Amino acid sequence: MNAAITKAATGSVTVVGLGPMGRAMAAALLDRGYAVTVWNRTASRADDLVARGAVLAPSPADAVAANEVVILSLTDYVAVDAALEPAAQVLSGKVLVNLTSATPEEARAGARRAVERGAVQLTGGVTSPPSGIGQPDAATFYSGPREAFDRHRPVLETLTGRVEHQGEDPGLAALSYQLGMVMFWTSMLSFWQAVALARANGLTAADILPHATDTADSLAQFFAFYAERIDAGVHDGDVDRLAMGVASAEHVLRTHTEAGVDATLPAAVVGLFRRGMEAGRAEDSFSSLVELLAKPGGPTEPGTNGRVRQDGPSLR
After folding, report:
1. Integer Rg of the chain from CA
2. What residue spans of 117-170 are helical by DSSP H?
């Protein structure tokens, strides 16, 4: 081991992985006065951090040995395993704050491997881009051992001002992160799609931004309204009907094809709506599509006892 790196110093943290997120985290820790040890496969990414006082470890084993808390910010769990394997002999007693994107099952498997080596894993899902790291309104989901979360909460709150422990299951934070990502990627793609359609009609992204923002802002009320009905198993066509929705989706698709714009995304939407029609949902709300997306053989629609018809955002 590198004798210049001291083990488990108070107020000291290791960061493994210096992509944009890892560098932002190391910088935030330095800003708060932590002694920071870093390691990255491409060592030159640490140059600016070393200039600010961080210690560049010569190997993953040296980096892990330096501190009790080891923050992992890598591309995937394959990269995590590749970084930790050379450090297997020094993992005992470590708290691995694993902020690497993963599926819930990957996170659980990673936590089991950590335990086998005498370490514990706190799985984290950061909901902020690198520019938000260190900010009080940025947030991260965590799951795993509550004791480790509570004991190292000051470090976690240095990374993002808001932290939430979701339970002992190490897969829960990964699930919450992926729930956000499915909405983020799909929503952003819908904006790119709208921009492409606007361009085909002589408009710019800036031209449609106010309308796009108003549309995005309006979604919150729809989420709240439909969430209650979906959980109650209510898909009545009293506010909207799938037959009306498929007509609207087909208008969107035809607008794209007439403009000569790639229609892969709107065609997929139409395909899902048509599946609902084929399943006999024409007179139901388009919220009934959630049942088509549900896991085959999994939970069925919730019971509908005590249904209450209520006014909501109108799609008519």
Report:
1. 24
2. 146-151, 153-159
What is the distance between the alpha carbons of residues 60 and 57, in angstroms, rounded to a whole number?
7
Whole-number Cα distances in Å, 91 to 1, 86, 115, 116, 203: 14, 10, 9, 10, 56
Helix (H, G, I), strand (E, B) or coil at 118: coil
Complete DSSP assignment for 185-218:
HHHHHHHHHHHHHHHHTT--HHHHHHHHHHHHHH
CA torsion 195-199-201-205 (nearest 10°) is 50
DSSP assignment letter at 89: G
Residues 6+ apart with CB under 8 A from 62: 1, 2, 5, 37, 39
Q: Is 97 exposed, middle or buried (0-12, 13-18, 19+ CB in 10 A)?
A: buried
Polymer length of the chain: 316
Mean pLDDT lowest among 4-8, 100-104, 240-244, 276-280: 4-8
Which carries the bigger pLDDT value, residue 52 or residue 301?
52
**Sign of the dihedral through C-alpha 192, 193, 195, 199:** positive
Q: Which of 220, 223, 225 is nearest to 311 (CA)?
A: 225
CA distances from 85 to 88, 93, 116, 144, 295 (A): 5, 16, 13, 21, 35
pTM to 2 decimal places: 0.84
